[in-house]
Amino acid sequence: MLVLGIESSCDETGAAVVTDDGRVLSDVVQSQVVHAEWGGVVPELASRDHARNVLPVVREALARAGVTLEAIDGVAVTCRPGLVGALLVGVQAAKGLAFGADKPIVGVDHLIGHLLAVFLRRDDAAREAPSFPFVALLVSGGHTAIYRVGGARADQIVELGATRDDAAGEAFDKVAKLLGLGYPGGPAVDALAAKGDPTAVKLAKPMAHARSLDMSFSGIKTQVAALVREDPAIDRANVCASFQRTVTTVLADKLLAAADREDVRDVVLGGGVAANSELRRRVTEGAKRAGMRAFVPPLASCTDNGAMIAYAGALRLARGERDGWDLAATSATVLTRVTRKGRGAR
Ligand code: KG4
Ligand code: ZN
Prior knowledge:
By secondary structure, the protein is α/β, with parallel strands linked by helices. The protein has helices at residues 43-65, 84-101, 110-116, 168-178, 186-193, 218-230, 236-262, 277-289, 299-302, 306-318, and strands at 2-7, 12-19, 24-31, 74-80, 105-109, 134-139, 144-149, 157-162, 266-270, 293-295. It is globular.
């Protein structure tokens, strides 16, 4: 089965052609540059840029896969969660293409796309895949949560813990902004951290208690802001190294604690922050020590892309599921949340 997937939930316009066994025939991602000067994603600019790019990106994905729309078995599109205006562009484009070519359409939850991206195969080599159930840390600019993934269906995926405030990627972006490193900040902090001493600057570890899988990343950003205010000439590499060590230690420790608690052997990383070199290393090494298997997908599968949406949609189509032409864009995920947002005891 061949599925065209379309992603437009935030600031990447993506389209891909993927088979229902995860083979990626093409995966085209157009990252929006319009947000850089604002230091964050501007929703209205995102919608307009998606509207300009969605059809060229789809055409490119079909061309690279060497197929026409007629050869496709269905169209999958991110319909939640995300910026509603941005999502709407993808959903409407997908409806037009599917209706015109007389193909079925399925909506995909962006988070489920991320959680299943570990099954994508981007080259001919048979990639080792985790087995269900696994525990996954999804960590991006918009989301930070740990899930037990018992299968590909939404009702088989359970949130075990999540951030109560900022996403970890958001903290990377804000710290980069405080240090004048530009947007998006994650890659810049990662690169500068490699040149710094992670013990030179003291930062408190947020919500490090072993028993709770809840997380919090807004306080550490405030700590960094105070440090920079006190000493504007502070060594930026040391701040990056300390910040990154603190955040990745919390993320890796909670992921491994969750797997241990769930009695699960396979752990998986997903989302844009999974690109972080220290997080990848900590999870890989920590899992090995604990006798677990860590699966860290290639970068192209971790950041927002159409292939993960096509694959999650292909599994829905293969189960015989279809959506109607009334498929709507929604800002909230379909996955049940257990973590209370904001301060205070649970
Ligand atoms: O998944 P993604 O592409 O988009 C969504 O947020 O959904 O993730 C983007 C986030 C940004 O916050 C970016 O700063 C962060 O991932 N990021 C990183 C790295 N590369 C990207 N964070 C830390 N280290 C990196 N190397
Ligand atoms: Zn994402």
